[in-house]
Amino acid sequence: MPFDPADSAFLDDPYPTFSALRALGPVHEHPMLGMPVAVSHAACSEVLRGRSLGRIWADAQPAAEFPTFNLLHRNSLLEREGEPHDRLRTLVAGAFNRGHTARLEPAVSALADRLVAELAVQVRHTGSADLMAGVAHVLPVEVIAELLGLPESVRPRLRGWSTAIVAMYEPDPDGRRRARSETASAEFVDALREVIAHRREHPGDDLMSDLVAADLDAERRGGAPVSTDELVGTAALLLMAGHEATVNVIGNGVLALLRHRAQWQRLVADPGLSATAVEELIRFDPPLQLFERTALRDTTVAGHGVPAGTKVAALLGAAAHDPQIFDDPAELDVGRRRNPHLGFGAGVHYCLGAPLARLEVAAVLDALRRRLPGMVLAAPPRRRPDFVMRGLRDLRLAT
Ligand code: HEM
Fold first, then answer.
1. 8-398: CATH, from 1.10.630.10, 3.40.190.150, 1.20.1290.10, 3.40.50.300
2. If you measure from the C-alpha of residue 247 to the centroid of ligand 1, how many angstroms do you get, rounded to a whole number?
3. CB within 10 Å: which end of the chain, N or C, has fewer?
């Protein structure tokens, strides 16, 4: 077996295992995950870009226990291919192109600054503070709530809903996690239906209002309309995709900088490195480690046969440390010039929120650089026991 995704030593540092596997070949059968896994950059890129492979949603089973979890995903553009995917992606990309990232920039910077300032006060008063609880978990969810124009009444519940839903993405979640995920989906869907109904009557300057308006416009022009379930699935995707990964880039990224102190000092001394630093943090310890595809017909990945209807996975963390593509991949280099990482995916499902995510991570780094330039680890961080969504439970900082 190539590796055990639940083994804590592996989760602590999966990269040596990935390197050893890559040295043996680009694709390996993984009996525990029940599919072959691609570990080289080229093979992962083939998995993500290959047109004979697709994201084919299979309802969580037994389907009667997951009506809303399945409804959310069945209607999400991330889980679809062909016409529905392209129609929904065009709608979301069009709404994003109406300047939402630029609209949010001042608010993101101000929020990052306020949260880090509060963290710095806590460090001064009590000796240490948790970056995850104080900043990483708070900023991305607030930004998505703002992006979608969600009312204050639902905002405090978003994080809990999202965390409960994405727990189902890990291999073999237990019964409690499965039940929580359905309950959270049902509550979230109810809240989104209300927001969508409200926005149809009272449009605002948020992305949800743009999605509703663009849909009406398409309908007027004779294009295929978007169902309310699809709008709900899209909004839910934006919360989950747009929030969980960003939380963990902030946590994993700051930990990497503190463990490679010279790189942190380099960034503190030269804010001009911010853009390359953000890309490097996403490469160095990606927050999303595994993406699956299903073969639409008999196909191959790096010469490895994938029969029609079976699955294959891309291990993004393994691709990110491939020495064929990256010079000294085990080194963190905040000024790395050539960095074609796959952290935001590739091909038709390439991340629609990448510009917003970059803005958020850069804003947090900038606030830390100004307010806590001398930060150090106050205690060894605790890791979440998850493999697909790679992140920390806490990251206590001191000065
Ligand atoms: C650093 C943070 C982020 C990372 C690392 C990330 C990564 C990814 C990856 C790897 C995919 C492709 C999945 C696949 O190919 O199966 C993806 C898709 C997507 N992401 Fe992100 N993402 C981040 C932040 C965001 C944000 C902030 C948003 C929105 C506000 C967002 C929205 C989306 C959407 C809508 C898709 C689906 C696109 C499609 O299916 O066509 N992401 N993301």
1. 1.10.630.10
2. 13
3. N
